[in-house]
Specification:
Uracil-DNA Glycosylase, subunit E, alpha/beta, binds uracil, globular, five-stranded mixed sheet, two-stranded antiparallel sheet
Length: 203
């Protein structure tokens, strides 16, 4: 599937990484997406949250977590006493992957395959090397597998402190899975409980 590695400038700050990522051709996902959606937030953030990939709204706006899942994440971060402005938000995959519905109008999110995550992960590694957060939070299975390895199971190990690639890491569910859950209140409470562990860990 390819790799972003040849496109990642060495020793670059976040601004230079973002500029370079705009021209990434490391896999084919750039072909149908509007633009690269790079991470956003302060370079000195103590907390990095990693999602799966930009959604429809993010793809059009060029910013991570500004759609429905982002709204829910905002609310949960605030309730867990975590300041969104201080968080660096990014995704395992930097382009929106979708299929068109039968009428060819609506863009329907499609999960990235393993090879697409592997191709894109050099960007995430470069972001983490630059930000050097105290803690990385993986939102959902795609982010968790990208950071903690392909065998990692969020359902079995969510809300627990892990160690990977020189980082403290906690995995939880993806905010869009909370939006889709049959019992949304219960799913939200579980998500919030994990974010309270995050808050605790940051001290
Ligand atoms: N879902 C994600 O995983 N990331 C975003 O940026 C938006 C929605």
């Amino acid at each position: 599937t390819g790799s972003a590695a040849p496109f990642v400038p060495e020793g670059a700050d976040l601004a230079a990484l973002r500029r370079a990522a705009a021209g990434c051709r490391g896999c084919h996902l750039y072909e149908d997406a509007t633009q690269t959606v790079f991470g956003a937030g302060p370079e000195d953030a103590r907390l990095v949250c990693v999602g799966e990939q930009p959604g429809d709204v993010e793809d059009r706006r060029g910013e991570p977590f500004v759609g429905p899942a982002g709204k829910l994440l905002d609310k949960a971060l605030a309730e867990a006493d975590l300041d969104r402005e201080g968080v660096y938000l990014t995704n395992a995959v930097k382009h929106f992957k979708f299929t068109l519905d039968a009428r060819g109008k609506r863009r329907i999110h499609k999960s990235p395959v393993r090879g697409e995550v592997t191709a894109c992960v050099p960007w995430l590694h470069a972001e983490l090397a630059r930000v050097e957060p105290d803690l990385v939070v993986c939102l959902g299975a795609t982010a968790a597998k990208a950071v903690l390895g392909n065998d990692f199971k969020v359902t079995e190990r969510r809300g627990r402190l892990e160690r990977a690639g020189g980082h403290d890491v906690i995995a939880t569910v993806h905010p869009s899975s909370v939006l889709r859950a049959p019992d949304r209140d219960e799913a939200y409470r579980g998500f919030l409980a994990d974010l309270r562990v995050v808050r605790e860990h940051l001290g």
